[in-house]
Amino acid sequence: MPDSSSSSSAAVKRACDACHRRKVKCIGDGTRPCKNCTAAGLTCTYNAIPQKKGPKGSRAKVISELRENQRQSQLVAKAQQHAFGFDSPPLSPAFSRTGGLLCMDMITSCVDYFFAHMYPTQPILHRVRVGETIGQMDTSIEAYCLVTSLCAYMMIQPNMSLPANLLPDGEMGPGASTALGNAVLQGALRVRKGYNYVESPTVWSVITSFFFFGSFFCLDKHNTAWFHLREATTLAELIGMHEEATYSTGDIAESSRTRRLYWLLFVTERAYALQRHRPLTLHATIGLPRIDEDPAETVELSGFIHLVNLFKPFDDTFVGLWNKARTGCTTEWLARLQDQLANALPAYLESTESQAVDLRTSQQWL
Q1: Comparing C-alpha atoms, which of 229, 261, 273 is closest to residue 366?
Q2: Nearest Cα to 214, choosing from 203, 229, 202, 235?
Q3: Which of 33, 107, 131, 347 has the most neighbouring CB atoms within 10 Å?
């Protein structure tokens, strides 16, 4: 009969899957989960087939990968059980974010960055409503995707710098935030595939696609960026955002943010169409936001409306000529367009300082 003590000793010598992947000593003492997995918030398993030792890698990156893979596999499994996530009953058990890439402090930092730096040119979110959406992340796949896509979009911003204590294992360096944002982005994309947002689109669906576009634009992946921008404009049309009647009923605050979202897509599509020689889908078919709709945001909204007016003249005719899809451009027509563009902005801009810089720069570029 084999010696039971020697068998126990042999069992302890084998590292669990996570410790083996991270190339660290497994402190299991013959029990599960091992101390390393408990501390890192990982599931302790012994499923992998032992292989020959290889070169050591970055343990911080490996543990982040393990956490994300385990968390996303759970989320995707739950998503697949609820193909129509937004309209389905609350998910049970709740989404698990324990040990994942996004803690509440991380989400708060990203939301704060959006409202501090991005909101004037992208005034599409309501701060209180964002907090409510965060509270629904555990029960709604669509809420989860919106918040994670927002966080990914912020982390990938060139000037975004997360506090070191929020990065996995204190991982530092100029690319740490972008790398983490890319991981969150890929996770959000995987989870979103688990429910049918195309057949039952909402405003959240449109915003999520826009944040995906912004993320891939910052990553210089322009084909993927264009795909998600076109996805956002298509979803916007599916829910009638291009029709004025859509805004006549419902919550006033939500309607105003939805109207702004349409015009943001309008401007973004035109700017990208000129940059990348793409066609247009959205047109000036609804009224502009009213400057007085929120007294606390008069300056920001004024700057946003100036931005819309800058891009309005660049319609299907111009873009068709620009893309060489049509001919017949005359000197007189171009002169009128030039005058229209030159007079699009007043001498004094009622806007934030950053908006004024963007507006003048955009005017010169156009």
Answers
A1: 273
A2: 229
A3: 107
Return the biggest CA–CA distance within the chain: 100
Tokens 């209180």 belong to: 128
Structure tokens at 205: 């669906």
Question: Domains of the chain: which residue ranges?
Answer: 13-42, 104-239
With a CB cutoff of 8 Å and minimum separation 6, the contacts of 354 are: 117, 120, 121
CB atoms within 10 A of CB 311: 22
Work out the burial of residue 90: count CB atoms within 10 Å of its CB; fewer than 13 is exposed, 13-18 middle, 19 or more buried.
Answer: exposed
**Rounded distance, CA 224 to CA 221, Å?**
6
Radius of gyration of the chain (CA): 25
Give the separation between CA 166 and CA 254, rounded to whole angstroms. Answer: 32
Secondary structure letter of residue 283 according to DSSP:
-
**pTM, rounded to two decimals:** 0.69
| Tokens 């405003």 found at | 203
Return the H-helix or E-strand segment holding 11: helix 4-13
Q: Which residue numbers in the chain have pLDDT < 70?
A: 1-13, 29-32, 41, 48-101, 166-175
**Cα–chain center distance at 187:** 11
Cβ atoms of residues 311 and 270 within 8 Å: yes
* Closest residue by Cα to residue 123 from 289, 8, 241: 289
Tokens linked to 123: 């005034």
Full DSSP string of 149-170: HHHHHHHTSTT----GGGSGGG
The two tokens of residue 269 are: 């599509």
Please give the distance of CA 151 from its chain centroid, rounded to a whole number: 6
What pLDDT score does 99 carry? 38
pLDDT per residue as tens digits for the range 196-253: 999 999 999 999 999 999 999 999 999 999 999 999 999 999 999 999 999 988 788 8
